[in-house]
Write a structure and sequence with these properties.
alpha/beta, 29% helix, Rossmann fold
Length: 465
Amino acid sequence: MPDPIRPQRGPQETALTSPADVVIFGGAAGGGKTFSLLLKPLQFVDIPTFSAVIFRRESPEITNPGSLWDESSRLYLDLGASPNRQLLEWRFPSGARVKFAHMQYEDDKLAWKSSQIPLVGFDQLESFTAGQFWYMLSRNRDPSGRVRSHVFGTCNPVPADDAVGGWLRELISWWIDPGTGLALEARAGAVRWLARAQDGDAVEWYDSAAAAAAARPGSQPKSFTFIPSRLSDNPILERADPGYRASLMLMPLVERERLLGGNWNVRPTAGKVFNRAWFPVVDAAPAEARRVRYWDKASVEGAGDYSAGVRMARAGGVYYVEDVVRDRWSALNRNRVMRQVAEADGPEVEVWVEQEGGSGGRESAEITVVELAGYSVRADRVSGAGSKLVRAGPLSAQSEAGNVRLVRAEWNEEYLRELHGFPDGRHDDQVDASSGAFAKLALDGPTEVGVLGQPAGPRRVILRL
């Protein structure tokens, strides 16, 4: 007989047994959030009329290896449920259903306007908009009356000014210490009641159902709770993957504070993504090293953004910023400078140039590649989905670990000033060029898609599009 499936004692058990209409669970990585979300429907799958829909913001987040679909297979198959991979749905022997769905765009919520869903689940609620959350709350009902309709959401921390999930930080603010950004342990799991103000959109809170009824006669406030969890609350995961905590410790400071520390206040500010104290200054990089020069281009002369070319070397696990060239050149002068810099660097230094989106970005990259014929030059197509902060993350982590050093030169101060001020500073061209150079050195060599004008060999010209 298989072992019974049950939550771990502590926050996971508290979340799954809470009487609140809306339960928000999590606030850090590794606390057993997704597993809890998949366990929640199992309380009701013996009821033929029961159904649940669990949302992720984008479809790949459901089917990626180790994501919701894979994890649900480990649980639901042993209970006799039948999968429908095309519909992303499980049907249990009683007839109960658990479905996974995405809600990538704001208007995707309208596809559910005629739905009646006894259990609505959100995995990573901070990635959804407030409009999506409140709309789906209106679809949360059980026409059979056999199940108490409720919402169960998991989350990771985001600050109040986050463009997408800041609303969630505001919604649970009573459970968060405003000074530290950490969850208040004394309030964990405490149930409160909320209702909309009669004369506006503000949410009004009450400490009991009786207080809500007295203040709002005739209204039906919803009960609500937030239950924090951290990796330390999930000993099963720590035993199964002892290296997971070490992986979180290697994340950049801001993400580490959020995902390991559960900090809802921390945000990328000056000195947190890059800190000038993290960069030792040395007289030279080792002669034996792989080297790249990465260009972040601008084309307005004398004003606006800068063009920047950062040469970086890697020797073992240490990265050296050897040279930075930066100015506001016209497109013509910039291309001349890039040629001169390539000549000075020598053919053994790989040259990369950021290719921006659209036909204009492709044409600009093609022109640069052609004009630098004779050197190993490649265009790097940067996905629009990846923000500057995301791209800077790996370099930030290695910098904090002391693995990135500067070669002493007159450009050091301006370079450190920009990195320390990122992302609040006026310019980020040196950050972008450094992130690009680091990525090329940290990863394996480029994928060769096509060759322009040169036969294969050490001085080939490759356009990566």
